[in-house]
Design goal:
The protein is of the alpha/beta class. It has 2 domains: 6-136 and 188-252, Spore Coat Polysaccharide Biosynthesis Protein SpsA, Chain A, CATH 3.90.550; 142-181, no CATH class. The protein has helices at 34-43, 60-73, 86-94, 116-126, 152-163, 197-204, 215-221, 241-252, and strands spanning 6-11, 28-29, 32-33, 48-55, 76-80, 103-106, 131-137, 142-149, 175-181, 187-189, 193-196, 227-230. The strands form 3 sheets. Strands 1, 4, 5, 6, 7, 10, 11 and 12 form an 8-stranded mixed beta sheet that branches. Strands 2-3 form a two-stranded antiparallel sheet. β2 and β3 form a beta hairpin. α6 packs across α7 (215-221). It is globular, with a radius of gyration of 21 Å. The relative contact order is 0.19.
Length: 253
C-alpha cells in the first residue's frame, strides 16, 4: 500500500452567484463558519501535511484579514485563486502544495458536512489507486431538456385554451423534454477527490483545461483510471439557500 502524505486544496474563490445571500463560506453551519468547518475536516487527520485555501484574487487582502488568523491556527495557507473557472483556482493552489506530498486532495469549501468515514474511505482507496473520487448513485429519473425555453406566447396560448385569459403572475415558463437519460451506473460525484500528486500535476499541465468541471475530468483526459468509491448523500455542496438549510439540519443531527 502506498504511503499517504496529503496536501489539501480548498477552492474558495468563487463568487457564489447562485447563492444570493452574501459571503457563502462565512455562513454559520452548526455554530462555525462554513469555511472553517471544511478546513477542520482535514486539519485533524494524520495523513494531511498541508492545507491550501484558494481565495478570490481581487479581494485576497480582505480575505486574509477575515480568515488569516483562524486558518493559520489550523496550519492552512491562503493563496490567490482564479478569476473565471474552478480549474484556474485549483491550478494556482497546486503550485503551493509542498513537493514532499505524495497525494493531493481537492475538496469543495462549500461541503462542510463531509464525514470522517467518507474521508477515510477515500484516503484508504488512494493508498492503492492513483485517482479516487466519491460518488453517490443517482436515484432520480433524469431528463434532457431543450436549450431554449417555451416562449411566453405559446405558454399563454395553451393556458388560454384551458383556463381562458390569465394574468402575468400565473404564466408558466418551461423547456421541452428531448430525452430520458438512463440512470444505470450513474453517480453524482462529490469531494474530496484524491490523486497521486504527480498525476494531478500532469493533468493540470495539459494545454487545454477549458470546460473541466472537476479534477477527475482532467485526469480522465490523460487516459488514467479513476476509481469511484461510495459517497454519502449527506455530503451536500451548498449552492443555494435551500442547500444551506439542509446542511444545517444535517449538522444538528
Amino acid at each position: 500500500m502506498s504511503e499517504l502524505r496529503v496536501g489539501v486544496i480548498l477552492p474558495a474563490a468563487g463568487r457564489s452567484t447562485r447563492f444570493g445571500l452574501g459571503d457563502k463560506v462565512a455562513m454559520d453551519v452548526g455554530g462555525r463558519p462554513m469555511l472553517l468547518r471544511a478546513v477542520e475536516i482535514f486539519a485533524r487527520r494524520p495523513e494531511v501535511a498541508a492545507i491550501v485555501v484558494a481565495a478570490p484574487p481581487d479581494s485576497i487582502d480582505a480575505f486574509r484579514d477575515r480568515w488569516g488568523a483562524q486558518l493559520g491556527f489550523h496550519g492552512a495557507r491562503i493563496v490567490a485563486g482564479g478569476t473565471v473557472e474552478r480549474w484556474e483556482t485549483v491550478r494556482n493552489a497546486l503550485a503551493d502544495i509542498p513537493e514532499d506530498c505524495t497525494h493531493v486532495a481537492v475538496h469543495d469549501a462549500a461541503r462542510p458536512a463531509t464525514s470522517e468515514e467518507l474521508v477515510s474511505r477515500v484516503f484508504d482507496a488512494a493508498r492503492v489507486h492513483d485517482a479516487v473520487i466519491p460518488g453517490d448513485p443517482v436515484t432520480q429519473t433524469l431528463k434532457r431538456v431543450s436549450e431554449e425555453s417555451v416562449d411566453a406566447e405559446e405558454a399563454d396560448a395553451v393556458a388560454d385554451l384551458i383556463l381562458g385569459e390569465i394574468s402575468d403572475s400565473t404564466k408558466i415558463k418551461g423547456r421541452r423534454v428531448v430525452g430520458t437519460v438512463p440512470r444505470e451506473r450513474l453517480v453524482a460525484v462529490q469531494t474530496p477527490q484524491v490523486f497521486r500528486a504527480d498525476l494531478l500535476r500532469r493533468a493540470y499541465a495539459q494545454g487545454d483545461l477549458a470546460g473541466a468541471t472537476d479534477d477527475a475530468m482532467l485526469v480522465e483526459r490523460l487516459g488514467a483510471e479513476v476509481i469511484v468509491v461510495d459517497g454519502d448523500p449527506r455530503n451536500v455542496k451548498v449552492t443555494t439557500p435551500a442547500d444551506l438549510e439542509l446542511v444545517r439540519a444535517i449538522l444538528r443531527r
